[in-house]
Design brief:
- The chain has about 150 residues and is an all-alpha fold.
- It has a single domain, classed as ERV/ALR sulfhydryl oxidase domain (Four Helix Bundle (Hemerythrin (Met), subunit A), Up-down Bundle).
- About 70% of the residues lie in helices and about 0% in strands.
- Helix 6 packs antiparallel against helix 7.
- The longest helix is centred in the last third of the chain and has 24 residues.
Length: about 150
Amino acid sequence: MSRAIWGPATWYLLHCMVLKIDDNIQRPVLEDLKNMIYVVISNLPCPMCSNHAIAYFNSHQYMRISTLEQLRFFIYSFHEDVNKRLKKETTLSYAEHVVFYKPFNLSMVIKNVIHIYENMNNTNVTMMLYSFHRKRMVYDLDQYFKKHAPLYRA
């Protein structure tokens, strides 16, 4: 499946995960959120993309993030970095990106990501292994949102 399909859906998910959660979450919830985001970026449909994402997260001390605002800015900066690497124009300031993603319907974003990730066809053995891990990620994502649903704004 084309990155043009799963890429935007994944970005919508990552931005909505951090922007639509309650501003006053406790540290354990922040850690759950960070862990879920790491699972998502570790299971992208493109192994090279996942490797780049993991390298970015590790080199930018992702696990040392201690506030929701830091996490929100991290995801914004990560997206900007990917856009630069892919030679795409970056047009949104941090404040503009918040305004852009806030109106998204979280439920629809989640359903779209799950639909896309569940309907990928992998034809070789290596990609089938990635597919197995992606299916586990989809399950974990579903469980994460069931557990934390009261903390999210639609």
